[in-house]
Automatic annotation (TrEMBL):
<dbReference type="GO" id="GO:0005737">
    <property type="term" value="C:cytoplasm"/>
</dbReference>
<dbReference type="InterPro" id="IPR051908">
    <property type="entry name" value="Ribosomal_N-acetyltransferase"/>
</dbReference>
<dbReference type="GO" id="GO:1990189">
    <property type="term" value="F:protein N-terminal-serine acetyltransferase activity"/>
</dbReference>
<keyword id="KW-0808">Transferase</keyword>
<dbReference type="InterPro" id="IPR016181">
    <property type="entry name" value="Acyl_CoA_acyltransferase"/>
</dbReference>
<protein>
    <submittedName>
        <fullName>Putative GCN5-related N-acetyltransferase</fullName>
    </submittedName>
</protein>
<dbReference type="InterPro" id="IPR000182">
    <property type="entry name" value="GNAT_dom"/>
</dbReference>
<feature type="domain" description="N-acetyltransferase">
    <location>
        <begin position="18"/>
        <end position="183"/>
    </location>
</feature>
<dbReference type="Pfam" id="PF13302">
    <property type="entry name" value="Acetyltransf_3"/>
</dbReference>
<dbReference type="GO" id="GO:0008999">
    <property type="term" value="F:protein-N-terminal-alanine acetyltransferase activity"/>
</dbReference>
């Protein structure tokens, strides 16, 4: 985190054949192509159909939340500069040093490691550069692809109760996953943080 408590902007992260970069207005057509898709509608809070109007609003909101330092929202690019998906970091709690991450990949680019590579890159940045120690994902257990991404990147299920969510394409029951690889703190620290989130921080 910066000393102002804002997330850094702009940033670009590179590794394993992909680059994560800020969204641009010129990405509109590709963004609509990526996000107007049934799995995105089912498993994410995106509007559906995701038409150019939704795309313009999405890029505008992304720019605003980047500029005011609330979230990190990056296009996943491969094959030159072309976006193939998106990875996000949001809901930062500076006191608990935690944040939530999310990801999506366009239907024609799936199962090539883009989501897991991107999640690993952003998780590493969140730990090493932002100093966040608790990185969380919220996933419906029926979303097998997303659960596989989480596992592959070193996230594990926590014992927290599921979060129920109603969406236009059905309800979701979101489990909480946490990155538990090196640097994730001791089991006792993790349990303390679970308790702090559930019951409020003390001291
Ligand atoms: C979830 C999603 C991002 C995965 O993207 P991806 O780029 O295909 O994922 P990866 O290629 O990195 O795959 C990582 C692992 O998941 C597995 N996986 C991917 N899609 C899968 C599927 N449909 N069924 C089973 N396993 C799957 C891969 O085989 C791989 O497993 P491995 O570690 O055993 O090799 C993509 O399917 C998507 O955008 N879905 C809709 C949006 C969404 O659900 N976002 C997450 C909300 S919580």
């Amino acid at each position: 985190m910066t000393t102002s408590g804002r997330l850094p902007y702009p940033i670009a992260l590179t590794g394993d054949g992909i680059q994560l970069r800020e969204w641009r207005d010129e990405d509109l057509e590709e963004l609509v192509h990526l996000l107007d898709e049934p799995d995105i509608a089912r498993w994410t809070p995106m509007p559906s159909p995701f038409d150019p109007e939704a795309g313009v609003a999405y890029l505008k909101r992304a720019r605003q939340s980047r500029a005011n330092g609330q979230r990190i929202q990056l296009a996943i690019t491969a094959f030159g500069d072309k976006p193939v998906g998106e990875v996000l970091l949001f809901g930062v709690d500076a006191g608990l040093r935690e944040a939530e991450l999310g990801y999506l990949v366009g239907a024609s680019y799936r199962r090539r490691g883009f989501a897991s590579t991107s999640l690993s890159l952003l998780s590493g940045y969140a730990r090493s550069t932002l100093g966040l120690s608790r990185l969380l994902l919220r996933i419906d257990p029926a979303n097998v692809a997303s659960c596989a991404v989480a596992r592959r990147c070193g996230y594990q299920l926590t014992g927290e109760p599921p979060i129920l969510q109603e969406g236009p394409y059905g309800s979701s029951s979101l489990d909480t996953w946490e990155l538990v690889s090196a640097g994730g703190g001791t089991r006792l620290e993790r349990l303390r943080n679970v308790a702090a989130r559930r019951y409020g921080r003390r001291g």
